[in-house]
Design a protein that fits this description.
binds adenine; five-stranded parallel beta sheet; alpha/beta; three-stranded mixed beta sheet; Alpha/beta knot; Trp Operon Repressor, Chain A; 19% strand; 10 strands; 2 domains
């Protein structure tokens, strides 16, 4: 899978894909992430990419020309399955959306900055608008990193233990059950006995019950959504 991210602050994205699972995915050729500087695609003086909003008001708006220039230059070599804009007024990201997107081949992500991007770009080119939650970040970069991470780890072969993504919270509309590791006793706090029993059926049943209990306590809405 290839994910291209267009940003006015590409340095913000130099870290998140260079460690741990996503680093390994890139090294194994399962995931390619390219961060592109929007300023490389402007024809305006001093690499200007934004301007004041028509009609007045606070903040700056990313201009349509550099956005289109960047997109069309990339489209010369790549067909994108989705052209995504990260924005707080998009559809809120959930595990199901990440699952769907992980099945695509090529994604192009646009990060907004300042007040937003010219609406005409959204109307005519963006195929999918995604928010990572009901709060406003100073730009779409961190949201793009979250989305790329959520998608990247689901690509087949990225996680060593293939079943591990399936037992994540939100797969199956359930939160994940609690986990424990060594030592068996710490300050008198014991690991639940069942986990030490070696009885796989009992352990599996316990985990399922704990997942349901935790979900009922913390996120009953997930159980209601279950079809
Ligand atoms: N840009 C600013 N805030 C955002 C959010 N919550 N989700 C996605 N992109 C954003």
């Amino acid at each position: 899978m290839r994910i291209d991210i267009i940003s006015v602050v590409p340095d913000l994205l130099s870290g998140p894909f260079s460690h741990s699972i996503l680093k390994r995915a890139r090294e194994r050729g399962l995931l390619e992430v390219n961060v592109i500087n929007l300023r490389d695609y402007t024809t305006y003086a001093r690499a200007q990419v934004d301007d004041y909003p028509f009609g007045g008001g606070a903040g700056m708006v990313l201009m349509i020309e550099p956005l289109v220039n960047a997109m069309e230059a990339l489209q010369k070599e790549t067909h994108y399955d989705e052209i995504i804009f990260l924005t707080p007024d998009g559809q809120t990201l959930n595990q199901q959306m990440a699952n769907q997107l992980s099945l695509k081949q090529n994604l192009l992500l646009f990060c907004g900055h300042y007040k937003g991007i010219d609406q005409r770009f959204r109307d005519h080119f963006i195929t999918c608008e995604i928010s990572i939650g009901d709060y406003v970040l100073s730009g779409g970069e961190l949201a793009a990193a979250v989305l790329t991470d959520a998608i990247g780890r689901l690509i087949p072969g990225v996680l060593n233990d293939e079943s591990s993504a399936l037992s994540d919270s939100f797969q199956d509309h359930l939160l994940a059950p609690p986990v424990y590791t060594r030592p068996e006793t710490f300050r008198g706090w014991q690991v639940p006995e069942v986990l030490m029993s070696g009885n796989h059926k009992r352990i599996e049943d316990w985990r399922y019950e704990e997942a349901v209990r935790r979900t009922r306590e913390r996120r009953p809405d997930l159980l209601e959504d279950k079809d």
